């Protein structure tokens, strides 16, 4: 029986996906008989019907090590990943070498299924020297290794309903004066030179306005990051240096960094915290008071991790915009230092293995430091307060392996106690992207 079990384990390693189920199991109460029928069902890839029989066979202490492993594999094959992980981790402690190695290999597959790619690589790497499973582990490791070079290209025609961020009253009287079509071009290169999660890259985007060409924007971002996707923890550290041109003239340079950590609480439920910092310097004196630091702290509660069909995250942000005090020729009324806070929502649903719908929404209540004095008699003693809301939704369709088309729209609204700063900005877009990796 033990030799037959080992043959089953080797066969299981070669199975890439569950197949159609065979006949039903008979009701059995004896562990030995239950195991014999469970092994037959296992070999026929009828994992769901093998599970109750394997639970019966677990009652025999002499068979427990091998049966626990087979049960863990069956639970993995039927998608019960949390329960499967518990049994596979138990089997990983087995004194039997082949049981231990098989458990390590299937833990690697399980973590990969959960999106814990770095943990999966670690587990598969432990099995590469195994005589029984080494070749399979090496093949799986190679299949799941992230590409060393990643490229993406995107082209998207867009319609922007308020390019200039014209105040609401003026925009409503003549909305076409502020609206324009544009074409967005984006290209990116990512490099991951090592097996662990250190990577770097560059993204350049150019938005060509059709009529309002003074608002054509070129943005270049060079970034460096580290990520670790474990079974319980997801850690990301990201830094970037950005450079922007507006209408052919230098707009700003900035540096930003972000630290993110997500901890799994139960099943797909997790809690995360992040901190972001940005320092931006504008080139023109017209934007001088927008230069300075921005600090963002965020906590979120989320359900699902890649590649789950449903990802849902509810967050709350606290933002400090520690910008520069205005200098002449700007006036004290152009002091934009402020505190802001508010919730955000992100959702992603796989409607089909090639179709994905996503939604992102954010609300911020922003209160500015500046309190007008005699220089603004109509606003005397009343600090500016804004209600900022943004909603973006899109539908993406992946086809041909490396290609994706998408369509979507967004609405940005800022309602301010200073009417000149209230605006609406609707937009729509349609595009195609290509992604490919090498090495």
Structural account:
The chain has a 14-stranded antiparallel barrel with strand order 1-2-3-4-5-6-7-8-9-10-11-12-13-14. It has two domains: 2-144, Alpha Horseshoe (Serine Threonine Protein Phosphatase 5, Tetratricopeptide repeat); 149-438, monomeric porin ompg (Porin). The protein has helices at residues 2-14, 31-43, 47-57, 64-77, 81-92, 97-113, 117-127, 134-144, 168-173, 175-178, and strands at residues 149-160, 180-191, 198-209, 217-229, 233-246, 249-266, 269-282, 292-303, 310-323, 338-352, 355-368, 385-399, 403-416, 423-438. The chain contains ten helices and 14 strands. It is elongated, with a radius of gyration of 28 Å. The longest helix is centred in the N-terminal third of the chain and has 17 residues, at 97-113. The chain has 439 residues and is an alpha+beta fold.
- For the biggest β-sheet, the strand order reads 1-2-3-4-5-6-7-8-9-10-11-12-13-14
Number of helices: 10
So, CATH architecture of the largest domain? Beta Barrel
What is the count of distinct domains? 2
- CATH topology (fold) name of the largest domain: Porin
The rounded Rg comes to: 28 Å
Work out the number of β strands.
14
Taken from the alpha-carbon principal axes, the silhouette is elongated
Share in β-strands: 35-45%
Approximately how much helix is present in the residues? Answer: 25-40%
**H-E order:** HHHHHHHHEHHEEEEEEEEEEEEE
Could you tell me the mean pLDDT? 89
Low-pLDDT runs = 16-25
CATH classification, class level of the largest domain:
Mainly Beta
Question: Termini distance?
Answer: 44 Å
Instruction: Tell me the name of the CATH homologous superfamily of the largest domain.
Output: monomeric porin ompg
| Biggest beta-sheet profile | 14 strands, antiparallel, barrel
Provide the structure class: alpha+beta
């Amino acid at each position: 029986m033990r030799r037959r079990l080992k043959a089953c384990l080797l066969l299981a390693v070669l199975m890439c996906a569950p197949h159609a189920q065979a006949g039903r199991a008979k009701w059995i109460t004896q562990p030995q008989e239950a195991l014999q029928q469970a092994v037959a069902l296992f070999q026929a890839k009828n994992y769901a019907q093998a599970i109750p029989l394997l639970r019966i066979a677990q009652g025999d202490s002499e068979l427990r090590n091998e049966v626990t492993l087979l049960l863990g594999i069956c639970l993995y094959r039927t998608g019960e990943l949390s329960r499967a992980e518990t049994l596979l981790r138990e089997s990983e402690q087995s004194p039997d070498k082949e049981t231990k190695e098989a458990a390590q290999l299937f833990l690697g597959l399980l973590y990969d299924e959960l999106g814990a790619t770095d943990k999966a690589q670690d587990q598969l790497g432990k099995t590469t020297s195994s005589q029984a499973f080494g070749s399979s582990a090496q093949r799986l490791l190679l299949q799941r290794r992230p590409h060393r070079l990643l490229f993406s290209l995107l082209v998207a025609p867009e319609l922007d309903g308020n390019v200039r961020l014209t105040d609401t009253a003026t925009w409503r009287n003549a909305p076409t004066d502020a609206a324009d079509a544009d074409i967005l071009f984006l290209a990116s290169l990512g490099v991951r030179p090592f097996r662990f999660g250190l990577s770097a890259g560059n993204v350049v985007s150019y938005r060509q306005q059709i009529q309002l060409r003074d608002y054509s924007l070129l943005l270049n971002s060079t970034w460096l990051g580290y990520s670790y996707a474990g079974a319980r923890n997801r850690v990301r550290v990201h830094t970037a240096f950005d450079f922007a041109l507006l209408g052919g003239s230098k707009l700003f340079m900035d540096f930003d960094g972000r630290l993110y950590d997500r901890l799994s609480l139960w099943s797909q439920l997790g809690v995360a915290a992040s901190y972001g910092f940005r320092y931006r310097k504008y080139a023109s004196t017209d934007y001088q008071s927008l230069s300075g630091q921005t600090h963002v702290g965020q906590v979120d509660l989320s359900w699902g991790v890649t590649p789950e069909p449903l990802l849902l995250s509810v967050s709350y942000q606290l933002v400090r915009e520690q910008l520069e005090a205005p200098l002449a020729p700007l006036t004290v009324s152009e002091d934009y230092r402020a505190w802001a806070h508010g919730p955000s929502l992100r959702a992603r649903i796989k409607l089909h293995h090639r179709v994905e719908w996503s939604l992102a929404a954010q609300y911020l209540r922003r209160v500015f430091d500046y309190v007008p004095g005699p220089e603004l008699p109509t606003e005397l003693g009343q600090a500016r307060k804004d209600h900022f809301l943004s909603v973006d939704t899109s539908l993406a369709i992946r086809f041909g392996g490396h290609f994706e088309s998408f369509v979507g729209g967004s609405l940005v609204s800022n309602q301010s106690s200073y009417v000149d700063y209230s605006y609406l900005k609707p937009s729509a877009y349609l595009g195609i992207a290509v992604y490919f990796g090498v090495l």
